[in-house]
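Data availability (excerpt). The following record was deposited with the supplementary files.
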Amino acid sequence: MKTLILCDFDGTISTYDMGYILVNRFSSEDWKTIDQDYCDGKIGSKEAYSRIAGLLKGDGKAILHFIQKHSDIDPYFSSFYKYCKENHIDVKIVSDGLDFYIRTLLEIHRLNEIPFYANTTHLLSGGGLEISFPHSNPECGLCGTCKKKLIQFHRADYDMITFVGNGLSDRCAAAEADFVFAKDSLYPFCIDKDITCHYFQSFSEILADLKKRIHGVIFDLDGTLIEAYEAIYQALDEVFRQSGKEIFLYRDLKNYLKADLESTLLQFFSPEEAQKTIPIMRKKYAEVYIDHTHFLDGAKEVIETLHARSVRMAIASNKFGRFSREALAHLGVSHYFNAVFGAGDVPRNKPFPDMLHASLKEMNLPPEEVIYVGDTVTDIEAGKEAGVDVYALPTGFHSREELSEKKPKRILKNLKELIRLQENLFHSS
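Predicted structure:
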């Protein structure tokens, strides 16, 4: 598969937004009004640059000296580029910035062989500069460099195009690319628009993702693979009935479910009362859960497919361990898992990493070869504590936006997306 990675430059490859700090250093205060109009969406970058160009003061020598003093780039970008080059992954830069400082920074870091697209500048002898826009899109005209247009231009030559970016000028490209690495303001944009992406802070994480081979998957259970809400509600109802309290409506159950049984009960009972009610709830749950437990959509297909591909699997659930194992046996899939850990099987429940550490040991795999799939912020916290990439599943317990606040590696559109990972950059092999 022929692959291209298109990278934004300012704030993505470069540590600084060079265009921003140049304008701040070499122009009058008037530029901030122009910048605010751009941030507010009143004008595009093309018009903003055209206006700001007339405000820039400073000779070419002073400007170039300033660039050299602010030439830091992501410390892992060179390693990332070297890996891509060695593995025949093409890398190009697409920037809505200015060509002269991109060229200068690439030369400083001995990366000037990387092709780049940017707005074209001409430093004037009397100070200031002229800007032209060879990569703008006349159909839109907002951005100086239309990154969406450049992705479309490269489509005929590549099977997959991945985009790496961080800001406003990257939004159209993110929507057009096959896959996105996003940070800063681009990440919440991708979450809001349901664009599949991986959050990153530095190119070390992107490099790790390119190298990653998924040999194991640890799953949460309730809300990820199975659904047993009716059984949980009946067990809670028994607790409330014996305590002489009226229970909430079934439709409100998800609003009250917490990371573990004790935390759920503590919303309604004192610590002493909660401890007394736990055996009541477990007894009732044991009577009814088998008849009220079923797979979530696609779960059995995913389990069987991953097993057929020799992917090792385990369960890490805050459901009582015995109930977890019996539910999987009842559903006929327990033999697919190397280990099943639940409450009571390890010293601490999630969000502590004990279950995941135990699962990794039973799977005989290092954390970097495993992903953890769960549906709650507790799952994300536990996975991060264990050093495992977390793929969050918004099945309804938490929204995509709520899950994204904890920055999981990926937010799945559905469970079946795990099967398609082999067709992406990140595959099991």
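Summary of structural features: The chain has three domains: 3-211, 216-224+293-423, 229-292.
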